[in-house]
């Protein structure tokens, strides 16, 4: 048992923690949880907790069903929304085989492999997400159109009787469990909000994003509203993205910064972007994994539908924020396709490996674009080498299934399961008869 694990055992005893929830995700990012008593914690640290891995979608095959969850002591936090008489904490787990090997379809292990590849090249990978979500009135019928809890727009200061302190309560809760928030505000859609998390290493941030979703759902439950991370819940208003800023560091130095270069962007940064441009279509099924994701991408509202980059260009897939030359550590790129429903472990791994491929293979970078990409004609985009992102989940998985980069990033089992899962989602969606179709025939079409 290491020092961190011993420290957790002391905290549990001193604070009177009653339950410890062990968390991990399946391949598509659904959070899984099992609660153990404090008396079982030392054994969990030493030997792990065994479970039937075949019962978790995509985790393993039936004939390899035995799996073991090993809690990561560095992720221990007390969850503040439980009653003090039943103080509850959580830890994320790494999933392993009984022989101690990483489970081939554990999303956390997928990200760890990508981070090790970066570390072998001398890099540390940092992430800063801007997470958007909607708040709706509670309703039991999911087929009804959701009703936003307010009519606010971008940066509005909203006064309302329902969930009036939602963001401030969410921020306080996040900070109580060690997740730093940079800022929060009302977004452009009615009932739409954004909370930006402070930059951290990619693994810590992926855990934070999963925790963030739980916190938002818990605060919504307490305040009598419904939170939604659906990419495009409302037809006439913006979807919910998770614009994410990425940077590579070499020790204490930001590998993306060069004071003498265009946009203060180093050669390493340019090659990283070239990798993202080159592989963007291949990784889109990972960054935008639902049929609904493509309604956000292709609906306008500054959602990126084409593969371009530029300085402060809100219409581009990759934006280069203005860098303060006195703060070289802040140099970063923003990848704008990600939506709030992505599995952060797989998404960060795919983005990192795409960028590293650009560096390792010396990809050529297309010219930046300083105009609205969506406003360009198809011919203008073709001349500038600007390709479209996939139009649908079906197109995205068709592109992904031919991708060596995604296959090697996810590993054979995760890759195969993800494709099967998304093919099934597409087929289920394709068979639906929608109100739009019925309305057309009622009008005599």
TrEMBL record:
Annotated Pfam families: Gln-synt_C (PF00120), Gln-synt_N (PF03951)
Residue ranges of every copy of the GS beta-grasp domain listed in the record: 15-100
Alphabetically ordered keywords of this record: ATP-binding, Ligase, Magnesium, Metal-binding, Nucleotide-binding
E.C. code: 6.3.1.2
Uppermost EC category: ligase
Residue span, GS catalytic domain: 107-445
Cofactor requirement: Mg(2+)
GO molecular function: glutamine synthetase activity
InterPro entries xrefs: Gln_synt_N (IPR008147), Gln_synt_N_sf (IPR036651), Gln_synth/guanido_kin_cat_dom (IPR014746), Gln_synth_cat_dom (IPR008146), Gln_synth_gly_rich_site (IPR027303), Gln_synth_I (IPR004809)
Family stated for the protein in its record: Belongs to the glutamine synthetase family.
Record-linked PANTHER family: GAMMA-GLUTAMYLPOLYAMINE SYNTHETASE GLNA2 (PTHR43785:SF11), GAMMA-GLUTAMYLPUTRESCINE SYNTHETASE (PTHR43785)
Protein name per Swiss-Prot or TrEMBL: Glutamine synthetase
Species annotation: Arcanobacterium hippocoleae
